[in-house]
């Protein structure tokens, strides 16, 4: 199990960074969040009973690390792209930012579900495991979020 976890963590680190960045909007904080989540996963690997649930289990840890960082910060500080250091990790969000900004403007519980579904391609069942919500709640929040996004996009067209 340890080797499977290590392989997964190494293979998908860019995806983890992208998700963390979508929450934290800071290269350094996103990298720190991924590192913290990886350390927690390695420490708690014995708690994972079902190897098939590895992906949902790790995303659960990562989302909670990101939410903790946001709570500690008490507010989201957006950094202009020109202030970011050039490095191996670039801004993973669309260059125009309009859709990403609209997703960020949704309530956090709704935005999380949309990010996990469409940015990370998790199934509704996996999202349910990650968020700790029942499946019907996940479906409702996804529908609500998509409806709000559609309304805001249509109002500008």
TrEMBL record:
Alphabetized InterPro entries for the sequence: RNA_pol_sigma-70-like (IPR039425), RNA_pol_sigma-70_dom (IPR014284), RNA_pol_sigma70_r2 (IPR007627), RNA_pol_sigma70_r4_t2 (IPR013249), RNA_pol_sigma_r2 (IPR013325), RNA_pol_sigma_r3/r4-like (IPR013324), WH-like_DNA-bd_sf (IPR036388)
Any one GO biological process: DNA-templated transcription initiation
GO molecular function, one term: sigma factor activity
Record domain RNA polymerase sigma factor 70 region 4 type: where: 99-149
Record bears the keyword Transmembrane: no
CDD domains: Sigma70_r4
Pfam family of the protein (one): Sigma70_r2
Keyword Transcription in annotation: yes
Keywords carried by this UniProt record: Sigma factor, Transcription, Transcription regulation
Occurrences of domain RNA polymerase sigma-70 region (ranges): 14-75
Family from the record: Belongs to the sigma-70 factor family. ECF subfamily.
Protein name: Sigma-70 family RNA polymerase sigma factor
Species classification: Bacteria, Bacillati, Bacillota, Clostridia, Eubacteriales
């Amino acid at each position: 199990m340890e080797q499977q976890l290590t392989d997964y963590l190494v293979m998908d680190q860019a995806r983890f960074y992208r998700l963390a960045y979508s929450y934290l909007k800071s290269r350094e904080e996103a990298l720190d969040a991924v590192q913290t989540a990886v350390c927690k996963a390695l420490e708690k690997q014995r708690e994972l009973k079902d190897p098939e649930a590895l992906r949902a289990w790790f995303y659960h840890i990562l989302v909670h690390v990101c939410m903790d960082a946001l709570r500690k910060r008490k507010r989201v500080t957006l950094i202009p792209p020109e202030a970011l250091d050039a490095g191996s990790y670039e801004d993973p969000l669309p260059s125009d930012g309009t859709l990403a900004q609209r997703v960020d403007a949704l309530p956090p519980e709704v935005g999380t579900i949309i990010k996990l579904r469409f940015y990370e391609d998790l199934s509704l069942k996996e999202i349910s495991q990650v968020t700790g919500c029942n499946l019907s709640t996940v479906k409702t929040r996804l529908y609500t979020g998509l409806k709000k996004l559609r309304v805001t996009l249509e109002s500008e067209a």
